[in-house]
Amino acid sequence: MPGKNPNNLPQTYTTWISELKKRYAQSQIKASIAVNGELIGFYYSLGRDIQQKKFQNTYGSGFYKKLSDDLRREIPNAKGFSPTTLKYAVYFYDLYKDYVEGQNRPQLADDLNNRIRPQLVDDLKKIPWGHHRFIIDSCKNSPKKALFFVKKTVENNWSRSMLLTFLDTDLYEREGRAVTNFTTTLPKEQGDLARELTRDPYCFDFVEVRCDFEERELKDALLKNIEMFLMELGRGFAYMGREYRLQVGETEQFLDMLFYNTKLHCYVVVEVKTGKFEPAYIGQLSTYVVAVNHLLKSPEDKPTLGILVCKDKDEVLAQYSLEGSVNPIAISEFELSKIYPKDFKSCLPSIKELEDQLGG
Q1: pLDDT by residue (tens digit) across 120-144?
Q2: Distance between terminal CA atoms of the chain?
Q3: How many CB atoms are closer than 10 A to CB 47?
């Protein structure tokens, strides 16, 4: 009888076992998230208690050491009660208290309770405590900046090293700062999203080029480090090609770089110029944007965006140039740090020269 053979199990049973395995794994993940959320909530309340009860006034500079010892004695199997962690709990509370509780700001409290607060608290609980400590170190006196990185970490599932990378690149100060015409060329919701994905300047610190680098050298270096380039561009960018060929009428046009943004559901043409911004660049990029709309864009796609990245720009000239364009375009600068002299290798002493110097 087939039913008596343990090696010939019904398909419905094996499917059920597979489903149980998936459900158990999901439960583990949910449990881990729940535990982290409870821990974050505990640290927030601990920081609040320390601030409000003011026992520091009684025990002085040794307060955090005493509290740490007392907690470890009372809860011997628990971790996370070092004097440093206790101080961070206070920093954590101080950083977010106005946004979580709306203290002394009734209107802000109403706004938070009605719409912002639930999402904010949920986001704070999704991030591990180690991430929060990095954010606190970089944003101790700027809750808006801290909340910006909390949101980005949740959206992009950043590891600690990835979070540190973006904390070190002034992402908060650069995001959404490009000169654009999105408000006049795109519907408001798409324009707001498009503006969020632009940065000024773009940080190409991962690129290594000569002092007198040429455009091709810079573009080659960007693509050599395509993973870092995509991270700098922002969330949702998918690389479609370099010098992307389009047949426009009887001529061939080659786009510097073509991307598709899965968040905005649109193509993005990126042109990189190693010199100062020139108004003529807008006409060239506009032509590419229109060509992509005609030749690649599907009815489901949103209008194609153009991003022009130059070594530097005159803000007023850039804004005036965009006012005459009906296509959505952003203009940004880029920054480099790893620039070497053209004859960098020849500037280095040879092994023999080093040996001679050491021998002498």
Answers
A1: 888 898 899 999 999 999 998 899 9
A2: 91
A3: 22
